[in-house]
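Deviations from the work plan: none for this task. Representative record:
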Amino acid sequence: MDQIQSYINEHKDRFLSELCDFLRIPSVSADSRYKEDVARTAAFVRDSLVAAGADHVEICPTPGHPIVYAEKIINASLPTVLVYGHYDVQPADPLELWDSPPFEPVIKDGLIVARGACDDKGQVFMHVKAFEFMMRNNLLPCNVKFMIEGEEEVGSSHLGDWIRANKERLKGDVILISDTSIIANDIPSIDVGLRGLSYVEVEVTGPNRDLHSGVYGGAVANPISILCEMIAKMKDENNHITIPGFYDDVVALSSADRAELNKAPFSLDEYKRDLDVNDVHGERGYTTLERTGIRPTFEMNGIWGGYTGEGAKTVLPSKAYAKCSMRLVPNQDSATITRLFAEHFERMAPEGVKVKVTPHHGGEPVVTPTDSVAFKAASMAMEKTFGKKPIPTRGGGSIPIVALFEKELGLKSVLMGFGLDSDLIHSPNEHFGVFNFLKGIETIPYFFQQYAELSKA
Amino acid sequence: MDQIQSYINEHKDRFLSELCDFLRIPSVSADSRYKEDVARTAAFVRDSLVAAGADHVEICPTPGHPIVYAEKIINASLPTVLVYGHYDVQPADPLELWDSPPFEPVIKDGLIVARGACDDKGQVFMHVKAFEFMMRNNLLPCNVKFMIEGEEEVGSSHLGDWIRANKERLKGDVILISDTSIIANDIPSIDVGLRGLSYVEVEVTGPNRDLHSGVYGGAVANPISILCEMIAKMKDENNHITIPGFYDDVVALSSADRAELNKAPFSLDEYKRDLDVNDVHGERGYTTLERTGIRPTFEMNGIWGGYTGEGAKTVLPSKAYAKCSMRLVPNQDSATITRLFAEHFERMAPEGVKVKVTPHHGGEPVVTPTDSVAFKAASMAMEKTFGKKPIPTRGGGSIPIVALFEKELGLKSVLMGFGLDSDLIHSPNEHFGVFNFLKGIETIPYFFQQYAELSKA
């Protein structure tokens, strides 16, 4: 397996060049204008897997964007690793804040800069190249199946149905996912918990048309003001969320577990300096690591209404809108939380306005086991390539499909990601370190090796 | 003067056709992309005044959009009426809510539908056509001067300087303005009070870049949430504005004056039905007519931040913005109120965010006299053409230049407008009744006649 080092040295320019081709296709799943591009990206993934040596490579249509499936079965008696990833990306706006166009990747100062560089095209491509290495050198130690989807950034709406329809084909032993971060390039880590998600859009309607704020102002409910008041009431003075029942199912961590979690390397000063804020802001009684790791949140993702152009317009608008999302922790249930939010929001609406709540997508929180063969294999693989044992961490983000895999396939996941929190995923100037990309390609074959060996025992 | 009826009958198709030409030019003063169109509109006004018979017609440049000046001096010993109006219009968005394109006027069901149809191109054009009638029939009974500006919708920023530089040329006896409404087509009215305006834009900055709401959510101040909380705190539970000192200079009306004001024809049921709201919403202790007429307001005009596109994006944005405006009543001062707002908003900002307040434009509240020759002339003219004495009302809107004229030229204004509150000015599908347009053309010559006669006495 140690040939991986020299294989990377020999091929890294090609790997980077191919990754840039992958990043150049704007696979924005949220925006229907990119539908063709998303389809072209699926074809790119298919072609890459074929070239790397996979069998039965197939673009599986769904009512939304397609899923790319591939496999290499070397021996039915050996264990099977299912690799999951996604080839779709977040919208790139605000475009004006990018230093280079989001879909024209550049490699600069050791960073690959493009939308999707880290989340998740770069990390998906590590798996394709690690697989290529194992195939070309006849080193694949077990079976592998790939499921690379195109709707992760919009809630994986059609993955569940597809999985249920393909249970036989998807039989395996563990799910391997690279869509998370390590603490630092010299502090490897593995996510052992992910928050769930409830994402909703709200609409507040006041008068039936936009009005002149001079003629009607002061006498009619202004939907922007009402929306702001309703949002303000979603948290109390301690930044606890006020939705009745919101915390009912939250599993509280023991003091010992909280103490353990807070041992992770973290500098509040560096954190504030990095974000250029004079203070952090969150739920009273919890540290920043707890706020982002083990506590549920209510976060505003977007708001709009009225006149937002240049200059001044004295309008009292008819409608105001917002998008907001709640991150969930074990044992919260996303459908329940969405319902509690909707009921609360509708109940809060004062006379003079109508409100509408539209759920976008949800996902369940998960905790992955640290005593499994797969976790041990990932830990040993990272220790081999980083020279340090990885730290188990609780990630704040959500990969809703982890709970889905568990429910539908009965399989646990291992979250062996190689990004950094500073990679600006979902933001302008998203990037992925060349170091991280190559380190992923280097580490993955060791995971397969360790996993195959430990499974034998 | 009674020939005006037959003149209108003979020429009304041409009047409407010319007005449509005027409306077709998109003179959006707030948006710099329309600069050339605004200039073309000024030229249209100039040409119309020349054709109607005015002298010394001139497009007067300013650092912003130009002012069109014209005059007809028939005898220096006669009184002089200064007609003020504006040829610029509000932005037309949201475009998708227009039933026909805003700058392609259509006449349908007795309504001229276009941006600016009522506010204020249609009303300006009534004066041009009434003047044409008086000139062609040798009936102009006194001197007239026109000042038609192109920056009313953006705060008349350069009118003050221009007036101060042209005091000699602008000498006169009264300002006549048609930029307001009547109560109904069978209930004529004249505005005797206008609210002032303070318009501000605010920006709240949290982290220095857009963040992933999963990774950072719950731990960093979200500028949308903070902005909403700050806006919510601008009013208390009685919808009183909480800015310290905001009400200090407000002149309270006597009970008798309030009782008089509430005698104006008004049906709360019709008002609610027209706006499709189940209740009105405003400052406790005041009626709807008081809320829109004699009380100051704080109104949200626009808000934006984060992801506002299709679908879902789990972003914790760096910035959120809002536009808001306060309507002021006698004796509030717009610069003082703007300062009080800015100080309050900056003081309210919690740790973890930075805020910025940008004043847009302001204007002072005014009350116009009802015992003047000019008011009597307007009242008699309307009584003549509507067959009913007009009711004096307090308008909720602002025409900041009324205070400016008083200060710089020492002249009072008469607000003889012919629109309706239902004309959707500043909204999609703005319109102006053909009845109202022609009624204005019919009434204006009587005003001149009455004003000249009463001035002699």
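The two ends of chain B are 20 Å apart (CA to CA).
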